[in-house]
Write a structure and sequence with these properties.
The structure is a single chain. The chain is an alpha+beta fold and about 475 residues long. The chain is built from 13 helices and 18 strands. Strands 15-12-14-13-17-18-16 form a seven-stranded antiparallel sheet. A five-stranded antiparallel sheet has the order 5-6-10-8-9. A four-stranded mixed sheet has the order 1-2-4-3, covered by helices on one side. Helix 7 crosses helix 9 and helix 9 runs antiparallel to helix 10. The protein starts with 13 loop residues before the first strand and ends with a helix.
Amino acid sequence: MTHTVLPPSLDGKLVTPGDRRYAMLRSTYTTRHSPAGVLLPETPREVADAVRYARERGLPIAVRSGGHGLAGTSSNDGGLVIDLSALNRVDVLDERSRRVRVEAGARWALVARTLAPYGLAISSGDHGNVGVGGLATGGGVGWLVRSYGLTIDHVRAVEVVLADGTVVRADAEHEPELFWVVRGAGAGAGIVVAFEIEAEEVRNVGLAQIAVEATADGATVRQWAEHLARAPRELTTSAVLLPYGPSAVMQITAVVAAESARRARPMIEPLLAIGRLLDHRTDLVPYPALVSTAHLHANVGQQPNVTTNSLLTMDDAAARALMRAATGPNRALVQLRSVGGAVNDVDPADTAYAHRHQDTLAIGTVFPPQGGAALDAAWRRVAARSDGAYVNFEGRPDRAAFDRIYPGATGARVAELWRRYDPDGVFRPALAPAGAPSPRAGAPSPRAGTPSRRAGAPSRPRPIPASRDSRKGA
C-alpha cells in the first residue's frame, strides 16, 4: 500500500523550505540547490525508509555524505536529499587487526581524531570536511596514498541500502559483485551506509611545505615526478602550479609516513633542488593535523567551479602540457597528486577503480565567470596525454566521462552491476552509460538542471508536507 505520509521512523527528520535549518542543508560545496526536502535518517533502516518514501512520491533522490563533491550531485532541485550526516559513528572493532567501522556520514576529520589515540589512521583524501561515503565509494587519493594505497583498497566489508529498501552486508565472500562495484563505482548501486576498513599504524608524519620556480618547458614538473618514482613509498606529495611571470610557482606539500624528522628529511630534500627554491619548511606533526577538525564547515554553494582531471604517466610532453594549462592564455588552476606505489600493487580487475599503472593525477579547475569551454581550452593538451580519470575529481559526470573513469571491461561490468542492483535507475548517476536503466514508466521527467539520480516510482511526484519540526521553524 502506498504511503501518503512520512513513515513514523522519520517523523521530525524531514527538513522542508519552511524550516530554519533548510538554508544550511539545501546546497553542496559547489552548487546551490532547492530540494523539496532533506531527510536526516539516523540508522540504516531509516535510510531504507527514506528511499521507499521518495520512490512512492516519485521524487528524484540525491544522496549526501558530506556534500563536498565537485559535481554538486549530492543535492537537487525539487527532489529529496537523503542526508547521512547523522550516521557518523567511528568504532575500532579490533585493535589487533586494525579493523575500524566508519559510518558514511562521518567527516574524515572526525575519523582521524577518533583513531589517533589508537595510533591508527586511514589515508582518505586531503581535507577534513570531506564525507566518508562519497570518497570511500569512489577511490580515496589521500596523504598516504603511495604507502597505503587508495581508501577503497582497505575496505573489507560494507553495509548497503539497495533501491528496493533491502539492507545488505557485502564482503569478499558475501555478495562479492556488490562488494566489487561499491569500491570505485558505488554511486549507481545503492547507498553505502557503513564501511569496515583496515586502518594503518600511523601516529606522526613528516610534513614539508616547499615552493620552487617551475620552468615553462616542464622540466621542474618532470623532475618532481621522477623523484617520486625513485623515492621510498613513504613519500606522498601534492602540488599546485600558480602563474609567476613567464614561469610558475610550484607549491608542494610533501608528507612522509615516518615517525621522525630524521627519516623524513632525506626523502624531502631532493624536492628542494628541482627548481629555484623560493621557500620551504619541514615539521613533524600528528596525522590528524593533515585532515583537521578546523576544516569543518557547512556547505552552502560557496565555491562554484568546473573541474576535470587526467591520470597520467608523466613524460616530457605531459609536463609541458601541464605547464601550458597553468600559464597559457587559457589558464586553469592545476593541481598534481602523486599516485603509483601501493596503488599500483592492486590488480586492475580487483575493484571498479581500474587505473593501476599511472604515476600522476592531474586536476584542472576554473572559477566563474569562466566555465566549461574555458576549462576545455586550457586542458586540451593535457587530455591528449591522459589515459584515465578519477570519478571524485570530475565536475561534469556525463556519459563521455564514464569511459575515461571506467574503461573497457571495467565499464561494462560497472554498467551491468548498476542494472542488476538498481534495475529502475533510482540512484542512476549522471555519467551512466547508454543503455542504463531509466525510471519506470510514469515517473516524472527530469527538469533542466535536475541531477539524474531519480526515483523509479510509477506515480507523479506529490508535494512534501512539512514535518512538525519544519512547522516550528517556519
